[in-house]
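A further point concerns the way the authors explain their paired sequence and structure data. An entry of this sort, consisting of the sequence and the corresponding backbone structure tokens, reads as follows:
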Amino acid sequence: MKTIEKNLYRNNNYKRLKNLIALNDKHLQNMRLLLLGCTGFVGKELVPALLNENHEIYIVSRKPISKLTIDLDFKKFKFFQIDLSKEKNWNNENLQNILRDTDGIINLMGEPIAEKKWTSEQKQEIENSRIKTTKFMMKTLKNLKINPKVIINGSAIGYYGTSLSS
């Protein structure tokens, strides 16, 4: 947890994340965790920390595994590529089996906020990628009667200043 602590503390996210995850709680040790997204800024620190805590990790991402920026041995976790911003994909049998076998879910899925200009369309995509994905996840869990021990849902928010040219 020290690596994640140092890197997230700088962004004032660590205290919130630590309180939400409660990794040191005896009831939440050695869990099977489904990570939705978790391939961006926070995920780069979170995934290694969870693996070091001996959690079994299953990462779901819309990106192919070859595009992941996580510096890890890919043999240390399981990976499933699917775009969960589309409601129909929540009916995928493999995904539903993963959901049934998980102890906890960490959802950090969403369109990256710093990769593109914030046009009206991009702002809508950023919002939809977070809100709709969360709604689809909760609807699927309810329909399948799945009750994980823990669900952590988060999304990035940031301020990048103003631009006189846009």
